[in-house]
Amino acid sequence: MYSNKNAYALSDTLKVNERCSHCNTKYRIEPSFFYGAMYVSYAVGVAFGVAAFVISNLILGADLTVTFIAIVGTLIVFMPVIMRLSRNIWINMFMSYDETLANKNKKTS
């Protein structure tokens, strides 16, 4: 889906291909389509934060200051992954994989 496979190449993190190389699905649906992914990104960020809290505070037994630093660090480190994941979730809410279309496009190419 993305031009660059590396999510941590920050200049290319959100560059989306025009079409899927496998099934020819159009990714660039409309100019502001991925704005809704911000809401999904919030939910995914909360999930990552809760996971960081559970690991640092409940499992490792760290105090609240260290736990807070762990949550903020987790969100900063995983920000590119969260952005891409939220875009993938958002587009999958509106589009689904069509195997017949993919097979048809394989035969023509």
TrEMBL record:
Transmembrane segments: 33-60, 66-85
Keyword annotations of the record: Membrane, Transmembrane, Transmembrane helix
Keyword match Transmembrane helix: yes
InterPro entries referenced in this protein's UniProt entry, alphabetically: DUF983
Domain of life: Bacteria
The organism of origin for this protein: Jejuia pallidilutea
Protein name stated in the entry: DUF983 domain-containing protein
Pfam families according to UniProt: DUF983 (PF06170)
